[in-house]
Amino acid sequence: MNYDNYFNDFDDFDETSKRTLQSLSNHLLSSESFFSKTLKQPTDLQKETSLPPASSSVSDITDWQTDEYINLELLVSKIKYANSGMRDYMLEYNPNEYQSNTQNKSISLPGKNFIRLKAYLNSKAENVSVKWNKTQITQEIAVNKKKIYYRINFLYGQSAEKAIILETCSYQEFRDLNIVLGYGDIDNYDDDYKYFLKNFADALKKHENSESLKFIYENIPETILSGLSEHIDNLRLFNHLEILSNGDDSDIFKDSSSAVIQVFKAIGDPVPVLAYFRENPDKLNRIYYNLDGSTEYDGKMQTNRMILANIMMLFSMFANNDKRKKEAKSFTIGKGYTINSDILERGIFQGSNDQYRDTFFLQQQKEVQRNVKIVPKEGDPNATENVTEDLDEGTQFHPLDMVYLTDISGEKEETYLVPAIYLKALADAEEWAVVQQNIRIAANLVAIVIGVATLAATGNPYFILLAAADISLAGADLTVQAFKEEIATYEGGAEFLAVWEEIYRVGGIALAGLTVVGGFYSGAAKLIAKMADGSAKNYLKTLVLKAVLETNISNFQRNTIKVLEPKEIFLGAEYRALGNTMAENGVIFLYGQREGKFLNAYALVYKGEVIEEFTKAEMHMFYKKWRNLQGEKLVEELEHLGGHVPPGFSIVETTVEAEVKAFIVGKKQFSNTIIKNPFEKMKEAMPYFNHELVNNVIKQVGYENCANVVEVIIGFLKTGELRVAEPSGFQPFEDIIAKCGGGRFGETTIPSLAKEGILVENEIAIIYGAKKYYPSGKVDGHYFVAVKKEKRLHLFDGQTGEYVIFAQTREYGNFIQRNYKKFMYTKAGQIKQ
To answer: Which of 302, 375, 605, 827 is a Cys-bridge partner for 297, taking CB atoms 3.0 to 4.6 Å apart?
Structure first.
């Protein structure tokens, strides 16, 4: 094949790729290539991420296969297979094995999904390292080609030369590729996240034309958007809003991927948005008037102005509107009532001296029937006609002035607090019959902005928006009073409202105490089980969803989580009855896609803790496990699995027959055997380092033997042999160092250990938490174990059976709340590979 012609003729190669591949066909790559993860301060983003000219002094000559006749499925599967300590993370690479007679442009994923993929193969046959920390991830934002390239590069085991390059043009597909290869989700790796974040931020700083900004914003991953404010100030983001909105561009909004919506998500906090546009109402008016087109949204054509109005409505709901509620003017629609917006006023396009250039005109009108004033000779003297009467003189409103909108068109009168720009958009479009439809758009946009699945499919979406915005139920807002009254009519409703107000008072679910949090989840679950379908139930579900997101208690991707009821999960009557019983006892059911996987699953939450996960395929096993638990036994099991024991007490001790049996069965896998990869079995092993079966009861071996427990945990991690700790009293530093190795204990903090630079990958540390100091010099404290694995800090307390990963989660908070005064640590070697 003539590679030079191939590069030039194939449109999907960007200019950089052409230069790269032509260079690679004759030379080794320079070590200072665009494949380096190290970022410089670029003067030109495209030049920075391009391959520099190869050095002419390189003597070795290499050939690369760059066409599409490569067996991608085989290549990816072999890399995945080699990504194991059992195979030393080495791929026995021979490019001839991957030749194909057919073109291949993708690999398959579960569920009929796929990853569009291109491979570049070095012709040299030699072992290739596939270990994660030996690979190199790169990105190229080619604005002129309207493409973004994501590449993972594999090096030969004995050199820095590139052997294999895998390339996609989609961030999500690149995430999926890394998961398929066994590397996990790149979103969870801080270095890679910061690398992509800075690249996108630099691109947005460089480009100032609407076409380039539109391309970049529409292709920024959701997870990156929230971090942009670290690199780009709000003033620049507001400027981008103006650039994107100027001109008649009907494609500015394109469902959830809209560039303008992306800018609002990048800003994130509604407060600076509202503050900016309240200070500069003419700028918001300008954006409004420049949005002349329409876009298909949710299967229907919607005006871009209406979508903008919905965005501003939902942002206004996140503000403190107490003062504005008192001053808000009321408007009515339905049954002949309409609003006049004087659409010909031309807003900001009036003369520069016009005092109203930063306001909207709104006037209450009503359509009435009256007798015809002038009747023809042969006409009906009783003839009538429909005319529109002005009910007031009209008022000029700034776009973010708040007004009450009462809709009397339905069976039930409903009142909304909305910004004036929302009424302006309704009036301009004369869409009086579709208020709830338009508010539903806003509800979906809220879901996009806060990064969750669509909040609800039924009921009045305005209430859902209020829940998403954390509106206080105790407020005097007309829009929630009826909802509060409905909640209070149910058994437990008044108590739930009191709990929610306590959460609201302290500043959110993440700051509330365990008892309050437990009461919130339990109360919400019991109410949802009793309440009829409608707005109130959806409101409760949204409150639960927000609590789940704020405390990060689930193992699901944020944008896939939903709050479900047993009737939505279980089809069989017996299964559904079990689900209903659990809900009536305080269990919340969640649904979502597991992090780093392509698997949908269900999760049970009890008092703020996930106590069970299962998939559809595992539903029968779930039923068998729980079906015989009723009454007090069910509550006892829920309490136990929810970890509701005092800090420092065992989470393994139990008298529950099913758990005792599970303990016995589980221990057999560790009896008289050496575990090949002990770290991967730590979760299963945790109950057995300091617990034994005594007269059909699981009990702790000791309560002060934490040094001995650390010894057996480290022994297991290093050798794969599991032993039970001996009982003992507390032991000083010199004793535990003699048992486990290590040097002098030094002061630290848990967040410091979690960062790069102290512990390396696979390294073990013994942590000592000091709790109380006595005048005599004696110190009460506790030992536990930490391991750095895949850039995360894993914490093991074998004395109580607890295993958590350092993160801002309630699970970690419960683990660390033991009155520790300070922490010290010493290194204790490496885990078995």
So the answer is: 302
